Amino acid sequence: MNTKTCVVIVTYNGMRWILRNIESLRESSVPVHIIIVDNASTDSTVKSIASTFPDVEIIQLKKNVGFGVGNNIGISKAVDLKKEFTFLFNQDAFVSKTAIEMMVNFLEHNQNFDVVSPLHCSPDFFTLDQKTFRNYIQRYAFQYLSDISVGHGAADFYQIKGVNAAAWFMRTSVFQKVGGFDPLFHMYGEDDDLIQRFHLHQVKFALLPKARIVHCRESATPSESPSWWQQIKRKSTRNRSSLITQIKHPSFSISHMIFQLISTGIIKPCANVIVDRDLYEFFGTWLATIKVTTEILKINRHAKLTSKTGAHFL
Predict the structure, then answer these.
(1) How far, in whole angstroms, is CA 150 from its chain's centroid?
(2) Is 151 left (phi over 0), alpha (psi -120 to 50) or beta?
(3) Cis peptide before 31 (omega within 30 of 0)
(4) Are 269 and 234 in contact (CB under 8 A)?
């Protein structure tokens, strides 16, 4: 199949969603080449994809390398295939029939933009995804919110700083400029880090409200309640990523990084625990701070590296 677009989907125990995901891509008004990068799933994800969609390309990894590195592997394959566009798409999402065509047309007619996102909806195409709204739309898409609030109706597109990476449609060539996802991030924060690099390297990002995906955001129900230590470790994983994002800046010296780390990773949680009394968050932040402190030299090297253009991490 001759297609301009490669869809990269990183899977991990995604059996609940992946068949619907791929089926929505199959129903797209433009053809796409689908690459699955499986992070060592232990369920029937890979087997089901192979039997239901035998022409889908599957890269099966022997261990879980994380969301960002998994995407880097798929992106590298898209570069090798010389695809003009790469669509990074979450396993727990599905796309409307015309969304990809709209994004292709937008980039073809707007050469000054390199990244475009559809509107993230959940649980259907008519309801804005609340996490995307809180974390990105409110911060970066004020004009869109203003237009729909006063009844003007949404414009065809809005230039924004970015949204989460559940559905990024990009010129494949942009990765030669900003690089791939930083392997410092195993899970959480890797998209925010790349958004900062888009901004640093003046890569323009657009939101297309009429192009839509549904991000299910479902997770398997745990068989038993997590222990106190498991809860602290989960908090630590998220907070580590958040701390790295805050201190990883090419103009920061090591001393500035450490000062920022102390203020946000030690002093701030001490104040917060007095008010919130959330000991899991408190100890999770402190554990994250210890981890980040041991990685400070590596974080600084990555900050300096990604301040330059190049296919970093691919």
Answers:
(1) 31
(2) left
(3) no
(4) no
Residue 262 amino acid letter: I
The residues facing 214 across adjacent strands are: 94, 121
Q: What is the pTM of this model?
A: 0.93
| Contact call for residues 226 and 140 (beta carbons, < 8 A) | no
Distances (CA, A) of 303 to 45, 198, 310: 36, 14, 13
Do 163 and 129 meet the contact criterion of CB atoms below 8 Å apart?
no
Q: How far apart are the C-alpha atoms of 294 and 215, rounded to whole Å? A: 35
Tokens representing 67 are: 């969301």
Phi, psi of 89 (to 5 degrees): -135, 130
Tell me the residue ranges of DSSP E strands in 56-130. 57-60, 85-89, 93-95, 115-121
Indicate the SS3 state at residue 91.
coil
Q: Would you list the domain boundaries of the chain?
A: 5-215, 228-306
Chain segment 57-105, per-residue pLDDT in tens: 999 999 999 999 999 999 999 999 999 999 999 999 999 999 999 999 9
Residues 6 or more apart from 251 whose CB is under 8 A from it?
A: none
Q: Look up the CATH number of domain 5-215.
A: 3.90.550.10
